[in-house]
Amino acid sequence: MDFLSSGLGYYFILLISLILTLGSQSYINSTYRRTKKIKSKLAMSGSDTARKILNANGLKNVKVQEVDGILTDHYDPQKKVVNLSHDIYNGESLAAISVASHECGHAIQDKEGYSFLRLRHRLVPFVNIASRAGYIIIMISIFASLLKLLWIGIALEAIILFFQIVTLPVEFNASNRALKKIVDLEIVEEKELPYCRKMLTAAALTYVASVATAILEILRLIAIARRDD
Predict the structure, then answer these.
(1) Is 221 a member of any domain?
(2) Partner of 147 for a Cys bridge, out of 12, 17, 152, 228, CB 3.0 to 4.6 A?
(3) What's the whole-model pTM score?
């Protein structure tokens, strides 16, 4: 733990965090670029895919709308809207179909009251507070050498980590649901399924990197706080 609390330890964790973050982002971007080039044989767009999945699951009340940005796709549980970025909404690629299906997976989770999704929603207010207050407390405790105060910052970081851990089953479950719907509704041909599976897995793996990075940072902070023991 002494190594983690040292200056060298800080740069080591920073390096590992950067590798995890950039590596996961590079993986999903490269997977997206490859599957974006492969047009679906059935020529269904992302918006068509989303509408078909939602209707088939009794979610005709959920809207599908286009939003700005690249891979800014998300499901809004408050407004009951599946938001798809321009390339996903209009695209007829396997990437567009996969991403749109994933967001519909979240809509289905919402309808069925998926436990981890409900828990994540309940944690949002606490995470918002922890993310703002935690950074300030950690900075003050380190620069003012108030290491006992650092434990409060660590507790707040632990709340954020818990939120990220809860997010993992939410994302993997949404991807699993998406793939199942793609198969059940025959949205793509069988030989196209491996590409959809790879895209859906890549999307979920980015959250694994976030959890690993958060764990490393908490371990570093604990090592610093223990200097005062």
Answers:
(1) yes
(2) 228
(3) 0.85
Residue 83, helix vs strand vs coil: strand
Catalytic residues: 103
Annotate 15-79 with three-state secondary structure.
HHHHHHHHHHHHHHHHHHHHHHCCECCCCCCHHHHHHHHHHHCCCCCCEEEEECCCCCCEEECCC
Q: What average pLDDT does this structure show over 173-185?
A: 96
The enclosing H or E element of 84 equals strand 81-85
| Tokens read off for 135 | 């950074």
Residue 164 CA to residue 184 CA, distance in Å, equals: 30
* Residue type for position 93: S
Q: What is the pLDDT of residue 6?
A: 55
Task: Flag whether 81 is in a domain.
Answer: no
Return the closest-CA partner of residue 204 out of 62, 27, 79, 81: 27
- Residue 195 in any domain: the answer is yes
